[in-house]
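ERR on first pass: missing label on line 2. Operator R.T. fixed the label and resubmitted. Corrected input:
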Amino acid sequence: MSSRDAILSSIRANLPKAERLLPAVPKFEDNPPADLIEAFGNSLTRMGGRLLDPDPAGGAMAPVRALLEHSRLVCSSTSEIKGDLDLATVVDPRALADVDHALVRASCGVAETGSILLTDQDLKVNALAYLAQHLIVLLDPVDIVVNMHSAYVRPEFRERRYAVFHSGPSATADIEGVLILGAQGVRSLSVLLVPRNAAEHAEADL
Amino acid sequence: MTRGTQGDRPDNAKPEPQPRGARHKGNRPINQAEAAERFLAAPRHQQQHDTRLWTLRQRRDDQMWAMPEWEEMRSLASAIKEHTLSHLDTYLEMFEANAKANGVVVHWAKDAAEHNRIVLDVLALHGAKTLIKSKSMLTEECGLRADLAKAGVEVVETDLGERIQQLDDEDPSHVVVPAVHKLRTDVAKVFAATIGSDPDNDDPPYLAGAQRDATRPLILNAGAGMTGANFLVAETGAVVVCTNEGNADLCANIPDLHIVSVGIEKLVPRTEDLAIFVRMLSRSALGSPITQYTSHFRGPRKGGEMHVVLVDNGRSERLGMEEFWTSLKCIRCGACMNTCPVYRRSGGLSYGATYSGPIGLIIDPTFNARKYSNLPFASTLNGSCTNVCPVKINIHEQIYAWRKVLVRQHETPFVKRAAMKAAGALFSRPAVYRAAIEQTNEALASLPRFAIYNGLNAWGKRREMPHPPAETFHQWYTKNRGGKQ
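pass 2 clean. output:
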């Protein structure tokens, strides 16, 4: 008998007798926050992330450009900013080892936890979001959902091979509980709220 | 939150040596109490451990109170897990079919040895000589690192706490915070000896930075990556991993080969079920709303390979244990450990087993009833573990049930059996019981200390016996309500 069949037959011989029904899971959306954007920003800050302030005078992408001013190597998977490295040419993820700032657009945000959802399609190379020292995320405010229940209804979890919630930068408190941002992954996570099509012409003025 | 070292320790105070865990003597019962004595004898370690874990418990409470649906979520989590476990064969087959359709190679391992063999075979097929790993209690349970080392494969743990433990050649002492029993001075000593950090610098950000810098090249040069899994989704074939450091996503997304080791009990039926568990996992564990990373791997990257090893190792047998099968609902959040007064004061390594704390007490005897026969007695049965469990495992009741099983199987020491037998005789005869209580109260009031606080009275260790009342309740009742019985 193969191990597979041995395990399955052992399970069948030992299954608990009483029937237990699978419950329906409610959405728990009865009392959504009055302002989703504000709730998202507060949650993101609690997780160690940062919501960038808009700069109406400088243009939609000005807050991001300010962060990139002294960056040695920028890599972007967004159409808004070009960056120094073309992700389409990257075959080996190790080629991203020296990236300072990575830029990516999120599929959605979650107000409850301040999380942003990134997929393999958003990232183009998954490792981008971990090898870079700093991660900058563009998020369309209309893509913010109330909580994890509404987030898990989204199609990415059935369609994408890789989908990940980032909630703040990488962090550890493994030594005496002292919180340290920048464990093995990015040292900072900044989110800029910018609609998907509003910044179409931003690259022209870079 | 970052604190410097100056204020915490007087310059002239020498670092307190780290107390080590339980002593293993072949298959002989682990003496948890003996190891706990040594932990208690190291006050700085004991206090830091107790305070740190109680802080986590309080943060968990804050999260709980902020969520009106918390109790409803616990009931749902428990119901989803019990349903899944009572249809485990069906959901495993569903997961396998969907994962295969996504291009994942699915393996089945009956026990630890088969698991390690499968991993070695997959690594050999790829010529991988180094493996970067994120934290996994299952690979601890299987003794994977030792087996891979024998075969010449270098394993690098990439989680900070787990790496500290690996470099110190010590097991993790907690399922979520593996090095929580260590002080910064211990970590500085380990890192100075292994990764060449400054032996005189025990500042946590410095130590974490040193480990990050030392680990990054190992990640970039690894031949394969391995993660555990917090959940498997049957309807999509997805593997879900919850971490804070970003190391699991590095392990999975840089080498071409990603191996997932996972116990068969980690299944949930639907994607929507994840919302329940993800909302509760980190709130219960660390008191944070969610882990920094919640990653869903549904298939290999382009040009890469993804393998999932489904491991039984005693789980299917436990499913058939009427009193104990619900322990398989456990999502390894560690909340029961953080709240347990015994665990907080004795350290996870005192249990001498892969799983420590309350959940360990009810899981470990299923692996080895003799070696872990003392563990179910390392509890006051206060029930706090049951109250904080996000999936409603009746942990303290199972601890008590294990005591009965082990006594029946004569896996308990003679002194404990004799004491229990005497207590049983006492409790079954009311008149004798009342006389004994009166005598005990008199004895407690009049006996010299050495007669009460000695090795034979475990309840007199490290605490004062209660002050005996002037009269027993029965004496008071007879005097005040006499004749109305």
